[in-house]
TrEMBL record, chains A, B:
Short name of one Pfam family: LacI
SMART domains recorded: HTH_LACI
Protein name in the entry: Transcriptional regulator, LacI family
UniProt keyword terms in alphabetical order: DNA-binding, Transcription, Transcription regulation
Native organism taxonomy: Bacteria, Pseudomonadati, Bacteroidota, Sphingobacteriia, Sphingobacteriales
Top-level lineage group: Bacteria
Keyword Cell inner membrane set for record: no
Transcription recorded as keyword: yes
One term of GO molecular function: DNA-binding transcription factor activity
PROSITE patterns: HTH_LACI_2 (PS50932)
DNA sequence: CAAAATTAAGGGAACGATCCCAAAATCACA
DNA sequence: TGTGATTTTGGGATCGTTCCCTTAATTTTG
């Protein structure tokens, strides 16, 4: 019931706490026999080092903050799994904060994490105006930050994990062209997020190349939720803008749009083909399943966790940007493989 | 940069650390003027109490473990929001563990949480044989546990948050009957989970009442994932068992089944109506949207958090079972409102 | 106005571990 | 067998806070 401490072992074995401690850290100033005795006694009495004492001693909480816009889609939770894969075996705990796509909540979450004394933060920005001042404040406090997926503009010197957004976006758009689509809508992401811009530029470049670009087809939803994807599709339809396919910033937006279209009786993919950028399980649970650019989400989390650990071990290590490779997955929403 | 401690304030104000401390806790043995001075200085220098020191002092980590089968569907993340609503303002941190529907991982997660020194655990069981011995071990260590949603059999004396499963299940099945269905499949949950049994009994009771019960329609999927729902539907079809509707243990199973049926060209709800028990956002993002028994997920999390806090404050308080009320939501997958 | 009662402030142990420094035990070797 | 070198152990400060126990200052009271 009561926790066994080093002092208990010390009494039990009639040895000083220093000696007991030496048995656990790899200290050469201890007799091998003594070490064995201590380890056995520890085993027998069920000794476990007290993480709170170590936290206090070393000034490290061994907590890492994980800030995401939401956890209701599988995106963040899949990345989280990667993060946990790396951090749990190292004895680090992960504390999750959902900013619900609201920069104000995101700000509060960062403050709370600071309060909680986290040793590092892994963050995916929420979609609106970003909290540059806050990020800087956190980092000045000596808490390393690693960004993934939604990356801030270049100004900030931080480690980042991203994918080759522009290229893959353009390839996916090219795929739509290859299946004969000419009026390709892009439901874009917010301008405050760098990779939203990258995906837009990939989209624009390839359409311009084929002479198909039409600014009326580049639309910015009011937010990142299903409802917003839905609203965007509705607006297109009601404005009478013709389109034969949609490439969306996220699975969520794509599915929102898809649902509206299905309700209105559009046939998918015959009348409107759909593709998105994300790579969550959601793409496979809707009907028809969605073609998308699949990001290596678990790997993304693992990379982010590794980067944050690097910064924790050596705060002066240079910031890194790791670019992972995303894969194009063709599903029924775009009629199978491209020619 | 460097953390301000009580000692810094002590030097700055030429007061003992005791006095400084008294200004923060509500101690009457301090002159109001002194208190004001201290508080002002704290504000000015940016003093924040060190949670790690408090943890050590009080033997409480202020960490709560949250163990769930998975986070890739919105179920757990919505409950999590409720948990966070209650716990974050109290200065508690939430550590999430995904057991991936695997009892072995669940076991390891519990050990890890014990290692992490959590003050309490909120848990939703994974679907397979449950780790009774482990739950008991954790509780013997003095860590209170609160179960929600998937509840263990009665043997365990723990606090629980559940919904009125049997009744709502029977009402939903009755709804299917009211829209003229006679061959109602139930994709049931695992026998090791009490509310799976409850839902089955609600299903069976109402069908028996109407003389519609057929054991061939009560099927147990091989797991809890989309794929398993899908497989179950496939098997029914391939075995040539006639059915005109499905009532599933979770949204996930229902959607898995639905996708298979849609692919095979079944019209939903005309040929097969679908309903489930869960209440996640997923039900609304598929087409047609799914009728389901909607559990108050956020409230569930809030209740679980409140119960665990009660046990933390007073370990001897009696275990409680709180039953929340679930709502039936009728959507297009069952053709609108019942008559 | 002195003694008693009250109020305010300070000193230092405690929580559990590590680690520096000193002390003791062992060993090597002349 | 004694001296110095080496190995092994112990003592105690430290991290930041609270809280018990004194001590000092102030107020009340006869």
């Amino acid at each position: 019931m009561k926790r066994i401490t080093i002092k208990d072992l010390s009494k039990y074995l009639a040895l000083s706490t220093s000696t007991i401690s030496r048995a656990f850290v790899d200290d050469k100033h201890i007799h091998p026999d003594t070490k064995r005795t201590v380890l056995e006694a520890a085993q027998k009495l069920g000794y476990r080092p007290n993480p709170m004492a170590l936290s206090l001693k070393y000034g490290k909480s061994k907590n890492i903050g994980f800030v995401v816009p939401e956890m209701t889609t599988p995106f963040s939770s899949t990345v989280l799994r990667g993060v946990q894969n790396i951090l749990y075996p190292l004895g680090y705990r992960v504390i999750i904060m959902q900013s619900e796509e609201d920069p104000e909540i995101e700000r509060k979450n960062l403050l709370l994490l600071e309060e909680f004394n986290v040793d590092g933060i892994i963050i995916n920005l929420c979609h609106e105006t970003y909290n540059q001042a806050n990020y800087q404040h956190v980092m000045q406090r000596g808490i390393p930050m690693v960004f993934f997926d939604r990356i801030p503009p270049n100004a900030l010197d931080v480690s980042k994990v991203l994918v080759n957004d522009a290229i893959k976006a353009s390839l996916m758009v090219e795929h739509l062209i290859s299946i004969g689509r000419k009026r390709i809508v892009h439901l874009r992401g917010p301008a405050s997020i760098r990779n939203a811009e990258e995906r837009v530029s990939g989209y624009r470049r390839i359409l311009t190349k084929y002479g198909l670009f039409d600014p009326a087809l580049l639309v910015e939803p009011k937010g990142m939720l299903f409802q917003h994807g839905r609203d965007a599709a509705k607006e297109l339809v009601e404005k009478g803008i013709a389109f034969d396919s949609i490439f969306a910033f996220t699975d969520t937006l794509a599915i929102g749009a898809m649902n509206y279209l299905l309700e209105k009786g559009y046939r998918i993919p015959e009348q409107v083909a759909l593709a998105s950028f994300s790579g969550t399980e959601m793409a496979t649970i809707v009907h028809p399943p969605l073609s998308n650019v699949q990001q290596p989400l678990v790997e993304m989390g693992e990379t982010a966790a590794t980067l944050v650990m690097e910064k924790i071990k050596d705060p002066d290590v240079a910031s890194k940007s790791v670019t992972l490779d995303a894969k194009l997955i063709y599903r029924a929403s775009t009629l199978g493989m491209p020619v």
